[in-house]
Amino acid sequence: MIETLQSPPLEENESGQIRNVGVELEFSSLSALRSAELIQKRFGGEIISQDPHYFEIKDTSIGDFECKLDVRYAHHSEDKEGTAKRLLGGLVKEEKLDDMLRRTEAFIGDLSEGWLPTEIVGPPIPYTKIPQMDELVGDLIDEGAEGTEGSWAYAFGVQLNPEISASDADYLLRHLQAYCLLSDWLRETISIDVTRRILPFVDRFPVAYVKLILQKDYQPSREQLIDDYLEYNPTRNRELDMLPLFRYLDEQRVMRQITSSLVKARPTFHYRLPNASFNKPGWSVTGEWNRWLKVEKLAHARDKLSDMARAFLENQNKLFHSNWARMSAQWLEQ
Questions:
Q1: What whole-number distance in Å separates Cα of residue 233 and Cα of residue 241?
Q2: Average model confidence (pLDDT) across the chain
Q3: How far apart are CA 128 and CA 125, in angstroms?
Q4: Which of 188, 238, 201, 185 has the alpha carbon at shortest distance from 26?
Q5: What 3-state DSSP class applies to 146?
Q6: Does residue 237 fall inside a structural domain?
Q7: 140-185 pLDDT tens trace
């Protein structure tokens, strides 16, 4: 039975509109094309093929989707085309080079299909519409889609992109602090897949960084908060990736240190931790959203946040640490 959707402590964005959230799904055993057809069946819109393994679904009832095989070498890009022209431009005519690239990309896609995930990137939707994404998940499952538990090799995840309510340093810091304090509890409650733990995509924040931001006297400006984050976390591979948000807020500051073209600026937290548990009865995107809200609610409860940070640092200073996930559960019950 799917959980009832909960509301965040702050329901509006900085413009006074209901907050949006973007949902990204990874799964296997269903092609990008068939997945795009299911999106169209559920929400309408027009399917536009970018290549044999990458489709856009435009003008659906809730916005534009992308659906693709999650391997960049199967898809065309200007960077890849430019590199090929530099290397082979004098040896192969341009029209033949373009055809060769397309054929190579399609071959890589065909070869990868079945063991690399299909990815659906949903549009920003009001958080109240998250249950509609669960309806889509049901459609995918009915067609044979498999999630994280489908195989030991499936390191599939669901990513939530909740829009921020404010952009000042205090708001951002409190949410980072709350997330770090609940990380152990979230990992234990979600039961993070073993393969996903081994791979770097949802790495923890360094303990040194967590200790820094939880200090009572740590009250940075937004610029300092971003600089400190970049010093300790110059990577997309964090369970809560702040780079898209920080790039949105301060493009030049972030891109002086981060060169990856995969960091897309957007006014959202980028929560990467949950498994895509399609095979687990009762699992839902709604449930993962409700779990994320534990972070927002703790960030909103200033006194509890401060007390919990102090307890965390005291626990870290012990020779033998107590189980922080269990301690976190007790804090959440208060």
A1: 9
A2: 88
A3: 8
A4: 201
A5: strand
A6: yes
A7: 999 999 998 877 677 899 999 999 999 999 999 999 999 999 999 9
Domains: count for the chain: 1
Rounded CA separation 301/9 (Å): 10
**128-152 b/e (C-beta count within 10 Å ≥ 16 → b):** ebbebbbebbebbbeeebbbbbbee
The verdict on pTM exceeding 0.85 is: yes
* Residue at 12 is within a domain: no
The predicted structure's pLDDT at residue 87: 38
As a whole number of angstroms, the distance between CA 67 and CA 34 comes to 10
List the domain range (segments joined by +) for residue 317.
165-269+281-334
pLDDT of residue 111: 39
User: Where does 99-252 show beta strands of DSSP type E?
Assistant: 118-121, 125-126, 158-162, 240-241
The percent helix, strand, coil of the chain (3-state, each to 5) is 50, 15, 35
Burial class (CB in 10 A: 0-12, 13-18, 19+), 177: buried
Residue 60, domain member (yes or no): no
Question: Which DSSP symbol is given to 135?
Answer: H
Look at residues 42, 102, 72 and name the one whose alpha carbon lies nearest to residue 261.
72
Cβ neighbours of residue 22 under 8 Å, at least 6 residues apart?
121, 122, 123, 124, 125, 160, 161, 266, 268
**Is residue 111 situated within a structural domain?**
no
Which tokens belong to 66?
Answer: 């992308």
Give the span between the Cα atoms of 41 and 136, in whole angstroms: 10
Sequence-ordered list of residues with C-beta below 8 angstroms from that of 91, at least 6 positions apart, any chain: none
Orientation angle between helical segments 169-190 and 207-214, nearest 10 degrees: 130
User: 154, 147 in Cβ contact below 8 A?
Assistant: yes
